[in-house]
């Protein structure tokens, strides 16, 4: 059963403007009405949080007029792929976007079809990552060395690379947008210092750290192609030659460390309770009193 429209949304959908381009101006009220309908359907907290991230990512990715027109979702899909998102993640976002369009009564604006997903996702190992850095250093390719290290140490989304500026690094606060959420990028101090030193040597006093000779931010294709060439030089499989694999390595490294910490916490708790057992444990030799 389809969700009931919010009255305000329903009036707007049933009475579209008679003039102007065919499309829908998306508003924050539309998003909240959609999320409220999902909540009334009994969707769990975590599921709602995922839907919220995805609809806000769509809203933030729209042009300034916030219009959804025929082809808008297809263009957003291409933007996500170019930004380094996996086909699986893109499919999830497109599914949510299509669901939102259906809720608003505009199935004509939906994106058709889904991306094929390879069940076996290539994973860059830590050894391969270090080989990339070693090779870049041996070839004296400092910019490429720093790009690999930046993606591998922070999980920075490729499309947010222009936000890594001299000003942000000097201030120590790099603000990025990931999955529709604005957040502070955790940048290790050693990497921040390396990036600023590189900027000084390159004569970059302000603006993006990584840029072309004309001063424009380095493009996504240029970044991916340069990492692909480095993979060939380092004898690392080319299917791992993208910032997405470096981001996945960063995530898996953090997950592995968290697992080790959880194990240490569990072991420490066991030792604490064993020590308490020596003091307050039940002594069978004393018998059991009836209550």
Describe the structure.
The structure is a single chain. The model is unreliable at 1-6 and 13-20 (pLDDT under 50). The chain folds into 2 domains: 7-109, DNA polymerase, domain 1 (Orthogonal Bundle); 126-247, Intergrase catalytic core (hpI Integrase, Chain A), CATH 1.10.443.10. With 291 residues, the protein is mainly alpha-helical. Helix 6 packs antiparallel against helix 7 (142-154). The longest helix is centred in the last third of the chain and has 38 residues, at 243-280. The chain has 11 helices and 4 strands; from the N terminus they run αβααβαααααββααα. Strands 1-2 form a two-stranded antiparallel sheet. Strands 3-4 form a two-stranded antiparallel ribbon. A hairpin with a 2-residue loop joins strand 3 and strand 4 (181-185). It is globular.
Number of helical stretches of at least 4 residues: 11
Spatial order of the strands in the main sheet? 1-2
Helical content band: 55-70%
Order of helices and strands: HEHHEHHHHHEEHHH
Q: What share of residues are in beta strands? A: under 5%
- Mean pLDDT across the residues is 84
Q: Give the full name of the CATH homologous superfamily of the largest domain.
A: Intergrase catalytic core
Broad structural category: mainly alpha
Global outline:
globular
**Main sheet overview:** 2 strands, antiparallel
The CATH architecture of the largest domain comes to: Orthogonal Bundle
Number of domains: 2
Q: Topology, please?
A:
Elements: H1 7-14, E1 24-25, H2 28-40, H3 45-61, E2 67-68, H4 72-82, H5 87-103, H6 126-138, H7 142-154, H8 166-171, E3 174-178, E4 181-185, H9 189-202, H10 220-234, H11 243-280
Antiparallel strand pairs: 1-2, 3-4
Helix pairs in contact: 2-3, 3-5, 4-5, 6-7, 6-10, 7-9, 7-11
């Amino acid at each position: 059963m389809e969700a009931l429209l919010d009255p305000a949304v329903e009036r707007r959908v049933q009475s579209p403007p008679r003039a102007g381009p065919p499309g829908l101006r998306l508003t924050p009220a539309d998003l909240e009405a959609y999320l409220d309908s999902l909540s009334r359907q009994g969707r769990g907290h975590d599921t709602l949080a995922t839907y919220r991230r995805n609809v806000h990512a769509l809203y933030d990715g729209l042009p300034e007029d916030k219009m959804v027109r025929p082809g808008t979702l297809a263009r957003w899909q291409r933007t996500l792929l170019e930004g380094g998102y996996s086909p699986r993640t893109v499919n999830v976002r497109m599914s949510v976007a299509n669901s939102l369009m259906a809720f608003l009564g505009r199935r004509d604006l939906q994106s058709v079809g889904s991306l094929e997903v390879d069940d076996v996702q290539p994973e860059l190992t830590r050894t391969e990552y270090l080989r990339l850095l070693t090779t870049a250093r041996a070839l004296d390719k400092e910019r490429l060395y720093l790009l690999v290290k930046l993606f591998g140490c922070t999980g920075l989304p490729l499309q947010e690379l222009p936000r890594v500026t001299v000003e942000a690094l000097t201030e120590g606060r790099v603000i990025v947008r990931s999955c529709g959420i604005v957040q502070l990028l955790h940048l290790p101090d050693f990497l921040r210092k390396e990036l600023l030193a590189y900027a000084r040597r390159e004569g970059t006093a302000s603006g993006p750290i990584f840029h072309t000779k004309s001063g424009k931010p380095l493009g996504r294709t240029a970044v991916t192609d340069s990492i692909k060439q480095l993979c060939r030089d380092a004898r690392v499989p080319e299917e791992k030659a993208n910032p997405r694999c470096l981001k996945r390595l960063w995530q898996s490294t953090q997950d592995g460390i968290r697992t080790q910490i959880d194990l240490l916490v569990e072991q420490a708790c066991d030792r604490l309770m064993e020590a308490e057992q020596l003091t307050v444990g039940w002594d069978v030799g004393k018998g059991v009193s009836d209550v």
